[in-house]
Amino acid sequence: MAKHLQDTTELHNGVRMPWFGIGVFQVEEGDELVQAIKFAVNHGYRSIDTAAIYKNEASVGQAIREALAETGLAREELFVTSKVWTADLGYEQTLAAFDTSLNKLGLDTLDLYLIHWPVKGKYKEAWRALETLYKQGRVRAIGVSNFQVHHLEDLMQDAEIKPMVNQVEFHPLLTQEKLRSYCREHGIQLEAWSPLMQGQLLNHPVIMEIAGKYGKTAAQVILRWDLQHGVVTIPKSTKPSRIAENADVFDFELAPEDVGRIDRLNEDRRVGPDPDNFDF
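^ that's the sequence the OP posted. Answer follows.
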């Protein structure tokens, strides 16, 4: 179990991925984003998650360059993720989208590249492109996002390489038990987006009560719960105080009964689209 902000999990291909990172969903290009990522890296974060559709890869790249220059860290010490959008799914289109993302980021390689959503009839060709990029050494790990069990089963019928990561909506009201156990059985690392349910869980009475018991915030309790379930987590924030607070989850452990209480909050409730029913 992660004991430190820079602790890593080993993906099934041997690549090590930090348990904890910063997400930049819904943060526009610009100085606020650059400063947030630089603060995070200075604070000890080593993982940054973006996507083509966030339209902020250029600022993420700028922040990475400035952070490396200021800290003296090597590029290899950061773990950078991006994702191919639904409009670019297809073999040639996905290869081109990868080049576009790399150019915007100003990087030679990515650490992780994901298929953002499982568009029916399109994700297998996109996966073939990811396998090509992986074999070429242009990306260190490949995976998917928002894939349900049946999507994974379908993908793996034809895949040469098994996804290393599945990034999905995961929080106390959406505990994804079936998907979690499937990914565990198949050596696919689960990663949580919207771990705090876009802030909707920060006043939840059960979580607040547990937080009081540990002298922690509701956010810290939820992020700790992620880690204790073996789920990589990437909370989003641009506020330095919140970025620091989110990462302060390595000095306590939730008792099994408190993990269980949080597990029982599940309502299969989503804040994002349903992977079985989306139209983009």
